[in-house]
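Researcher: Next entry in the queue.
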Amino acid sequence: MRVTVLVGNPKARSRTLAVAEAVADAVADAVAPVAGPVERRVVDLADHAGRLFDWADEEVAALNAEVASSDFVIVASPTYKAAYTGLLKAFLDRYPTDGLAGTVAVPVMTGGSPHHALAPETTLRPLLVELGASVPTRAVYAVVSSAEPDGGDAVARWAAAHGAVLAGAAHAAAARAAVTP
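Model: Structure for this entry, 181 residues:
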């Protein structure tokens, strides 16, 4: 079982990455009892920003393929103008419709206040669904600050509410893998 963290923050090794990694830990904890060992990969788009608009770039194409072949993908962005970043959108625009079919996605957004708590549900979820990903849980929105750089207990609350759904999704992914040649 592979869980990939995809972060669209223009700042490398950001607070958004820390929150997304906490979500990936929660997903791994929920799915490991069903699916066994969990391999984890992190794609921090800040490290690849200069190449995202080069459609012939082989490294970015390989990252797109890797994300699409993941069982679970944590798609994270800070909240910019009540939506996700252009950096994340540029990466996701490389996929055709249904380019993430067969992947379970968890939309994650961070912000400085709770004012944009619906942003991942109203902006990021529809994009992931358009790309064919299954989004079986609520999105995660974490308020981050210098006092709580990891978003406080938002991830723990989300994990407690959705652990059983994640385990069910892992069971379905394992069943798909068993029948796919």
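Model: Strands lie at 2-7, 39-44, 72-78, 104-111, 140-143.
Researcher: Noted, moving on.
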